[in-house]
């Protein structure tokens, strides 16, 4: 097969490309230039789109003996990932930009271009497994690195042209393999946080773009406890940085329970009030390509790592209703809810949807 290997400049994508070469595929490497200010994108282990990363990807491609190109997708990334992130926070939601990047950039813009150029598949360093004959997306062998959640937005037609060569191997073994291959990125730190916020200061990033939008901080009784500069500075489940100058009556910490962007109200209360038993979600994507016609049992996941529970999912119009068998805590609109089969060790992804409300 002709394979386009997306090479971020990290060890995972480098080894994924190496494995595609070893499997006998005709491999071409491509680095995605996603930032409009790439000179300033690397700070320690943060980010993944700097000139340093492009150089690391180029050197890995040279070691592997494959052609290498850089594709500038910064406009698409700014529109579909960064702007989407900012708009979601302004609407009182908590988005996952990595999930959106996989959906809109790596397996939409990149895959579409790759297929148009005559490639058969796009290969990435994501930690997930793929049974291409179904297609079936599964959790990675390394639970601590599993990225099936952020890939659960992919459609069946996209999965048929995807390759995840490192998903069957624990991360330490991937680094050892890179060392054996002579790849300089073998010991390179993993990227962390949000790649387009290299400082890690999400609130500062949002404040710079959204400005001040004052509102009230209220408790469950409706008492105003203080004011804030904008709902974009908060997310459901947040405990620190609330700016409340007095403790709760019982002396226990307060948490953000809900965000109302129209009125600018942030509701806070006790930790126990974060528990939810039902989730409504929109725009479901089914990895089989076929939407279920009736309710089904599954295991749901609401965060990239953790936040899982048995559930029953019922299709409803252009969305789904999720009834949880046991409560989950701190579930926020804007997050994705991913569905996994309850058998097969709960590792097969059925699909996902975007959370709109909880109860």
Automatic annotation (TrEMBL):
Species whose genome carries this gene: Pseudonocardia nematodicida
Name this protein carries in UniProt: tRNA-specific 2-thiouridylase MnmA
Matches recorded under NCBIfam families: PRK00143.1, trmU
Alphabetical keyword list: ATP-binding, Cytoplasm, Disulfide bond, Nucleotide-binding, RNA-binding, Transferase, tRNA processing, tRNA-binding
Compartment list: Cytoplasm
Task performed by this protein: Catalyzes the 2-thiolation of uridine at the wobble position (U34) of tRNA, leading to the formation of s(2)U34.
Enzyme class, UniProt record, top EC level: transferase
Family stated for the protein in its record: Belongs to the MnmA/TRMU family.
């Amino acid at each position: 097969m002709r394979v386009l290997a997306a090479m971020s400049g990290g060890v995972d994508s480098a080894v994924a490309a190496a494995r595609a070469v070893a499997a006998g595929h005709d491999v071409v490497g491509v680095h995605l230039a996603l930032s409009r200010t790439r000179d300033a994108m690397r700070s320690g282990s943060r980010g993944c789109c700097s000139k340093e990363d492009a150089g690391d990807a180029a050197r890995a491609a040279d070691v592997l003996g494959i052609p290498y190109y850089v594709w500038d997708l910064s406009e698409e990334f700014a529109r579909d990932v960064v702007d989407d992130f900012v708009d979601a926070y302004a609407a009182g939601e908590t988005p996952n930009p990595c999930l959106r990047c996989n959906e809109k950039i790596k397996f939409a813009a990149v895959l579409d271009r790759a297929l148009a150029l005559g490639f058969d598949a796009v290969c990435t360093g994501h930690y997930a497994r793929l049974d291409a004959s179904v297609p079936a997306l599964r959790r990675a062998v390394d639970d601590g690195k599993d990225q099936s959640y952020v890939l659960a937005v992919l459609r069946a037609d996209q999965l048929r042209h995807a390759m995840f060569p490192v998903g069957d191997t624990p991360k330490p073994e991937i680094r050892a393999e890179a060392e054996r291959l002579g790849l300089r990125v073998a010991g390179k730190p993993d990227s962390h946080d949000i790649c387009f916020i290299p400082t890690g200061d999400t609130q500062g990033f949002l404040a710079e773009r959204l400005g001040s939008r004052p509102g009230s901080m209220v408790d469950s009784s409706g008492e105003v406890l203080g004011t804030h500069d904008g709902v974009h500075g908060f997310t459901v489940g947040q405990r620190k940085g609330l700016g409340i100058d007095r403790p709760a009556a019982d002396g226990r910490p307060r948490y953000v329970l809900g965000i109302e962007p129209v009125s600018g109200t942030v509701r806070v209360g006790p930790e126990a009030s974060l528990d939810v038993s039902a989730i409504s979600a929109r725009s479901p994507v089914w990895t089989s390509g076929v939407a279920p016609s009736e309710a089904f049992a599954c295991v749901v996941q609401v965060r990239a790592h953790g936040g899982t529970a048995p559930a029953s999912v019922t299709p409803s119009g252009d969305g789904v209703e999720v009834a949880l068998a046991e409560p989950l805590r701190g579930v926020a609109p804007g997050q994705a809810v991913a569905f996994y089969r309850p058998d097969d060790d709960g590792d097969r992804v059925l699909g996902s949807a975007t959370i709109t409300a909880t109860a």
